[in-house]
Amino acid sequence: MTFLPWRRRALTLALGAAALAAPALSWAQAAFPSKPLTLVVPFSAGGPTDVVSRLLGAAMGRHLGQSVVVENRVGAGGTLAAASVARAQPDGYTFLIHHNGMGTAPALYRKLPYKPLADFEYIGQVLDVPMTLVGRKDLPARDGKALLAYLKAQGDKTNIAHAGLGAVSHLCSMLLRQALGVDMTTVPYQGTAPAMNALMGGQVDLLCDQTTSTTPFIKAGSVKLYGVTTAQRLKTLPDTPTLAEQGLPGFQVVVWHGLYAPKGTPAAAVQRLTAALQAALKEPAVVARLHELGAVIPAEDKQTPAGLRDWLAEETHRYGPLIQAAGQFAD
């Protein structure tokens, strides 16, 4: 067959366009996911974020038709894990769970290797978790009001543990010190588990951490519960007053978690992950377990890319000035 020049040029352009479109078409036509996925957790195994991640990963896997492997990448307040996901192949098979640290990291770290508001695709918000203020069993104060008076009297003679720079327990300790006007000594640990062990061993006085971490120890009587950091009392701890009720009006700290994928992840993959997240958060067994841990499932409009993006922007602007004023930074 003989091609005229104009026909040859048209055929060349058509074949070129088809070649460019082929990867996108093949991705769209392929069943996603077709292999196991990796959920990266920035904190140690057994910690509160890890507990939630394993519950959520198993449930999402059921709706995705593939297993979700939880991988703990610990270090630098969660920034190592976040940076690794930001650099990961944007194919939908690697995603990140992170808490408030995504909003506080830009103010905490002078050389942050990623931009939380620019370097990720958003999947959705997972849950809100209240915080509890707990103390060693032999601390003299019998309740929250007595504790606040004790802390003001003791000043820097008292100390409060946290799970490392950038952890929500660190944020809570900063807010508590600011609200009391007391320069308590903060003691960092490499994760919630060692911080809790130090508290139960009497090596530190206080710890402010998530109900997902503290509830088992509260119920076992291993630590002394002084208050919750929510605006209202918790259904799971109905007899425990809020810190606001006991002399710290307006004091409120809630942990929230979100799911993120690398920037450039195909929209179809993000939509599939969002749908799996929303389905997982409707499973009766998941709901019951989260409620048992004191967690609150957010409204469905927050379980979306737009909902998480807007919330992260709000939290970033809320905590930035507080951290800057505290002068606590890391390289």
TrEMBL record:
Specify the superkingdom: Bacteria
Give the signal peptide, or none.
1-30
Q: Which UniProt keywords apply?
A: Signal
Is Signal set as a keyword in this record? Answer: yes
Query: Which PROSITE patterns has this protein been placed in?
Result: TAT (PS51318)
* SUPFAM superfamilies, A to Z: Periplasmic binding protein-like II
Spell out the Pfam families in the cross-references: TctC (PF03401)
Q: Which family does it belong to?
A: Belongs to the UPF0065 (bug) family.
Its protein name is Tripartite tricarboxylate transporter substrate binding protein BugD
